[in-house]
UniProtKB/TrEMBL annotation:
It comes from Miscanthus lutarioriparius. GO terms for molecular function: ADP binding. Keywords: Plant defense, Repeat. Residues 152-219 form the Disease resistance protein winged helix domain. Residues 276-622 form the Disease resistance R13L4/SHOC-2-like LRR domain. One of its GO terms (biological process) is plant-type hypersensitive response. The keyword Repeat applies. PANTHER family: DISEASE RESISTANCE PROTEIN RGA4, DISEASE RESISTANCE PROTEIN RP. InterPro entries: Apaf_helical (IPR042197), Disease_R_plants (IPR044974), LRR_dom_sf (IPR032675), LRR_R13L4/SHOC2-like (IPR055414), P-loop_NTPase (IPR027417), WH-like_DNA-bd_sf (IPR036388), WHD_DRP (IPR058922). This is NB-ARC domain-containing protein.
Length: 673
């Protein structure tokens, strides 16, 4: 705390309201930052160091500054592990100093030794203590197990949250909802909140699409998982275990991760694969796809397996304890055997990376199947069982077949469905589809936690089947992709609609104007070649917090003062964006960020115009280049913070030697009176 007014004599200390006060709170926990901050406070997100600055700090700590002119690619691997974190760079530099050679740094050798010495070498003690504290401070054993499971994925792999959370459930790390309240969503949110897991891709409604653990944390997670025999890792044909630098094999492991490994003879392994409960493959697996050797598998993730064949899939149907099954192989996997009915415990079936387009009807008789992914047509004479538990189905292909209303009508627990209409769809089949959709969106007033979501792609057929939808309807999320001439009438009558995405070659003025009547909409995404000129009038979209334009021709709407009154995120992913395009961002008094697309030709003058407009806005919103987050977001945020500090006579604080990355929260929360 820094006070600009001194106390003297016997006067009682003044309250914070009576003096000019600056309070700075630094934390990695986002919940703490939000709790401490007030509406007018500034939260400063710490950015990681650039590659050049990281290398400078690393070589300085290693006393190897004379090699500063060496190629950056030589040190790429070790810099990726340190991930721009000052504490990691300084401690790894000291570790290198102890092992430096006369001819220069051995980058590859350091990378290979780092994990093995993380818990034993004095020079790495500071970073190890910090990592261990992050792990031990997690509030439950369930969350700790979920974190260790990230060791199953390569360090630089972008993990889809839904993929890993469904595997947590299948493994039994987290129950759907246990007595401690550790639901799978809460476990993931806790790891995000503590900045242990970092979001990489985020959708316009702030949902995390991909994530990963940061460099040194991933090394610690690997070390912990290997030392406790939770996983066995095979990388480039070599089995890794922390106890003897990669050459030790044990006979009991719960999880097996194959990363770019092709084993020619799995029978020679001194490891009992019959006890493995989880197998994930990245790249080739070779003879490890002999599923006769596995007996207790619950999770089988072959989504990124490149040598999977149809004959392997037949053997999978004998793994009776499977709860999670994801298949890859692309064009080499073309069919699913009827023996899939043996998998009575299966909860998730993911076929998106296969060439399977017709499912056997036995799939829809599986008593516990909850999530079904792929791109498949309706099988002949397929009727889901009365006990069908399917909640998510992506994607049904609509062709000339009929009976969709009867088929989907049996799925009483369905909450998320994605539909793809082909050009072969007939009027009869589309009428059947319309009845199915009408039943799916039927309003249920007592549904308090209903998260029904519908996505329809119909660019190969007419939109007329949507016009017949009527009555009281409910959806939380809706995506329409096709030739939209007007906004279907049922959309404006949807109760509970929070997220809407419209995609078409051209979105016309009448359709766009009608969007202004959606009083409860929070997230809006418009994807088009161009937009007609239209005006968003005062009080239009009163609940909207985020709007994203994805346009080839950047014709943006005219927005009256008072339109979108609580907008926080303005996202302009437009080709050839020129200047502010007539937008008055001062109208948006709650604006926190403006996102531009760095992957298209946005000239420097336009970027500067937006930065100037943001600097003149009362909130000083961040200007972020979407495809350059790693290199520019930290700089833009830092520039905004320094600008704010200079204008308000405050200091900008950086945490020295902090174990931080671009997503870590180091909140500089400033309170003035």
């Amino acid at each position: 705390m820094a006070c600009n007014q001194q106390n003297s004599g016997m006067l009682s200390p003044p309250s914070l309201r009576d003096i000019n006060t600056t309070i700075v709170v630094t934390t990695k926990i986002q919940g703490v930052a939000k709790f401490c901050s007030l509406p007018n406070c500034y939260v400063y997100n710490m950015g990681k160091l650039s590659d050049d600055h990281s290398k400078q700090l690393l070589l300085k700590a290693a006393d190897l500054e004379k090699y500063s002119d060496s190629s950056l690619s030589d040190s790429k691997a070790i810099l990726k592990i340190c991930d721009g974190q000052p504490l990691a760079l300084s401690t790894v530099g000291k570790f290198m100093k102890k092992r430096s050679l006369m001819e220069g740094p051995d980058w590859d050798g350091i990378c290979n030794q780092l994990r093995c010495h993380l818990g034993s070498d004095d020079s790495l003690d500071r970073v190890h203590q910090a990592l261990m504290h992050e792990y031990t401070s997690l509030p439950s054993c369930a969350i700790k197990a979920c974190l260790l499971y990230f060791a199953m994925f390569p360090s630089d792999h972008r993990v889809k949250p839904q993929r890993i959370m469904r595997q947590w459930l299948a493994e039994g790390f987290v129950e759907p909802e246990n007595s401690l309240g550790d639901t799978v969503d809460k476990c993931f949110e806790e790891l995000l909140d503590r900045s242990i897991v970092h979001p990489i891709g985020v959708s316009n409604n702030k949902t995390v699409k991909t994530c990963r653990t940061y460099g040194m944390m991933h090394e610690y997670v690997m070390l912990k998982s290997l030392s406790e025999n939770l996983i066995m890792l095979c990388d480039n044909g070599n089995y890794q275990n922390s106890k003897n630098n990669g050459n030790f094999q044990t006979t009991q492991h719960r999880c097996l991760s194959l990363q770019d490994s092709s084993i020619s003879d799995s029978s020679s392994l001194d490891s009992d694969l019959s006890l493995v409960r989880n197998l994930i493959v990245f790249g080739k697996a070779g003879s490890m796809l002999n599923f006769d050797r596995y007996q207790l598998l619950r999770v089988l993730d072959l989504e990124e397996c490149t040598d999977l064949q149809n004959h392997h899939v037949k053997k999978v149907c004998n793994l009776l304890l499977l709860k999670y099954l994801s298949l890859g192989g692309d064009v080499h996997v073309t069919s699913l055997p009827k023996k899939i009915e043996n998998l009575k415990l299966l909860e998730t079936l993911d076929l998106r990376r296969t060439a399977i387009n017709i499912l056997p009807k036995e799939v829809f008789q599986l008593p516990h199947l909850t999530h079904l992914f792929g791109k498949f047509k309706l099988p002949d004479k397929a009727i889901p069982s009365e006990q069908c538990k399917l909640q998510m189905v992506k994607r049904f292909i609509i062709d000339e077949r009929v009976g969709y209303d009867a088929f989907l009508g049996r799925m009483k627990k369905l909450r998320n469905v994605k539909i793809w209409c082909e050009s072969s769809a007939t009027n009869t089949s589309l009428t059947s589809l319309q009845k199915a959709i009408q039943e799916f969106i039927r309003d249920e007033k007592d549904a308090k936690k209903d998260r029904r979501s519908l996505s329809i792609q119909f660019d190969a057929c007419s939109e007329d089947f949507l016009k017949g939808l009527e009555g009281q309807c409910y959806l939380r999320s809706l995506k329409l992709n096709g030739m939209l001439e007007e906004l279907p009438g049922f959309v404006t009558g949807l109760r509970g609609l929070k997220e809407l995405c419209l995609q078409s070659t051209k979105l016309k003025a009448a359709l766009l104007t009608a969007l202004g009547t959606l009083e409860h909409l929070k997230y809006l995404k418009l994807i088009a070649g161009e937009l007609d000129d239209f005006v968003l009038q005062r009080n239009a979209l009163p609940s909207l917090v985020c709007i994203r334009f994805v346009l080839k021709s950047p014709t943006l709407p005219t927005m009256e003062h008072g339109a979108m009154p609580i907008l926080k995120s303005l996202q302009l992913l437009c080709d050839g964006l020129n200047g502010l395009s007539g937008l008055q961002i001062n109208y948006f008094t709650h604006l926190r960020e403006v996102i531009l697309d760095a992957g298209v030709e946005v000239n420097s003058t336009t970027i500067q115009n937006w930065q100037d407009a943001a600097a003149n806005h009362p909130n000083r919103p961040k200007v972020i280049l979407l495809n350059a987050l790693d290199s520019t977001e930290g700089a833009s945020i830092r520039g905004s913070a320094e600008s704010w500090a200079n204008k308000n006579g405050a200091e900008t604080h950086m945490l020295p030697n902090g174990l931080m990355t671009e997503s870590s929260i180091a909140s500089n929360i400033t309170v003035e009176s």
